[in-house]
């Protein structure tokens, strides 16, 4: 079992990795930085502004990357900071929805050392918007620098796992995915990966579980080989990976076992292959998916389904097929991560769905509440009911003892 995989009610899944990446990039631009963790601060503009004002002086840049449910709060805090002479730079997947003039500068897209210098120059001057264009496919430039975790040492013992990327981005273009905006795959050089692992294992020596953050484990053979090389002489670590069903091949399974992978997350949005086709998710059909999850399970890997409700193309019939499939294949399923769809502005479907969004209160843009738009085939209320049925089916599966054809039975 993986007790680290389960998080206390008031605990954190992981530390804010973007801080470590941004810290290293700011270092390359010759800019010092500090970090303020507001996760335990009351979600109120004055309360959140106070520690930021104490840590900065007029003219300083304040970089924010808010989640959807904190977006309005971030804009309100930015107003306080701008009034006090700070210059707020907004990034993250909600940045495209920032009203004109709400912050000093907005960044869209990935960051590298060159773009950080340009962004700082822009923010230090008149402000405005900066967007890095992305060319689809494998990026010619690689990440040669390692994140710097000096601001995150206080998370030791507070998070159950460490996240590590051997590549960034994804080449698939699923229309509902909040990560599809990257359109490309950028590899991390092996030396940079080794440097990051050296720092992580030094700063967090008691954390032995790594979550490989590559959106699709196995899209790059080189990235997988780099992970194997870096951890070859570091025994005792275990790994969780996420991947696309199309990547589940013999060499991938062998590499997972060699690395020490114990759990594999796979997206499973629907048992209706035609629905997936309309959502631009590549698939060889339900039979192939079924074969792949049993292949992983039979190899001794725990299969975790990342399931999404509230999708625009979902019908009651497709939902019924999905729940039936879950129950029929329960013996191969260990755990479920369930999310209700949110039309984040960087999802490919956002322009198409925007006119059907009826709730622009960003506090409700969450993956554990009803959808904020009107799906094509069912009402928002009916969509929520279907999502609750998926949750109930998942609960039944993980709580039902699994019969093992040996002398005894054990719980999943």
Automatic annotation (TrEMBL):
Its cofactor is: [4Fe-4S] cluster
Domain Radical SAM core, chain residue ranges per copy: 154-381
Q: Which InterPro entries match?
A: BchE-like (IPR051198), Elp3/MiaA/NifB-like_rSAM (IPR006638), rSAM (IPR007197), rSAM_horseshoe (IPR023404), rSAM_sf (IPR058240)
Q: Which domain of life is it from?
A: Bacteria
Q: What are the protein's GO molecular function terms?
A: catalytic activity; iron-sulfur cluster binding; metal ion binding
State the SUPFAM superfamilies in the record: Radical SAM enzymes
The keyword NADP appears for this protein: no
- Protein name, per record: Radical SAM core domain-containing protein
Give the organism, scientific name: Streptomyces cellostaticus
């Amino acid at each position: 079992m993986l007790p680290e995989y389960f998080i206390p009610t008031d605990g954190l899944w992981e530390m804010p990795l973007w801080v470590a990446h941004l810290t290293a990039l700011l270092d390359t631009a010759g800019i010092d930085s500090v970090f303020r963790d507001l996760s335990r601060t009351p979600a109120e503009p004055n309360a959140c502004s106070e520690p930021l004002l104490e840590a900065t002086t007029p003219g300083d840049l304040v970089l924010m990357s808010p989640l959807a449910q904190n977006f309005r709060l971030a804009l309100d805090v930015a107003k306080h900071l701008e009034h006090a002479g700070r210059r707020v730079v907004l990034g993250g997947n909600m940045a495209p929805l920032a009203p004109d003039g709400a912050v000093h500068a907005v960044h869209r897209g990935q960051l590298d050392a060159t773009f950080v210098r340009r962004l700082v120059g822009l923010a230090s001057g008149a402000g405005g918007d900066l967007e890095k264009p992305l060319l689809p496919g494998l990026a010619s430039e690689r990440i040669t620098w390692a994140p710097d975790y000096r601001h995150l040492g206080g998370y030791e013992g507070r998070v159950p796992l460490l996240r590590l990327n051997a590549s960034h981005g994804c080449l698939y273009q699923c229309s509902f995915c909040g990560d599809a905006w990257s359109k490309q795959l950028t590899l991390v050089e092996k030396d940079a990966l080794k440097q990051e692992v050296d720092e992580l294992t030094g700063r967090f020596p008691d954390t032995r579980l790594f979550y490989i953050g590559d959106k699709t484990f196995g899209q790059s053979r080189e990235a997988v080989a780099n992970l194997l090389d870096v951890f070859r002489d570091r025994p005792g670590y275990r790994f969780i990976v996420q991947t696309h069903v199309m990547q589940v091949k013999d060499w991938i399974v062998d590499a997972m076992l060699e690395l020490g992978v114990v759990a594999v997350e796979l997206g499973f949005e629907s048992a209706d292959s035609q629905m997936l086709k309309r959502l631009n998710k590549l698939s060889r059909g339900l039979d192939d998916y079924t074969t792949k999850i049993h292949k992983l399970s039979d190899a001794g890997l725990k299969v975790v389904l990342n399931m999404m409700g509230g999708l625009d193309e979902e019908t009651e019939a497709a939902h019924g097929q999905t729940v039936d499939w879950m129950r029929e294949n329960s013996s191969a399923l260990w755990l479920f991560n369930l999310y209700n769809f949110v039309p984040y502005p960087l999802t490919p479907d956002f322009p198409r769905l925007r006119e059907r969004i009826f709730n622009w209160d960003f506090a409700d843009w969450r993956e554990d509440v009803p959808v904020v738009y009107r799906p094509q085939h069912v009402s928002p209320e009916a969509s929520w009911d279907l999502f609750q049925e998926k949750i109930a089916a998942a609960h039944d599966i993980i709580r039902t003892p699994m019969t093992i054809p040996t002398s005894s039975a054990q719980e999943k």
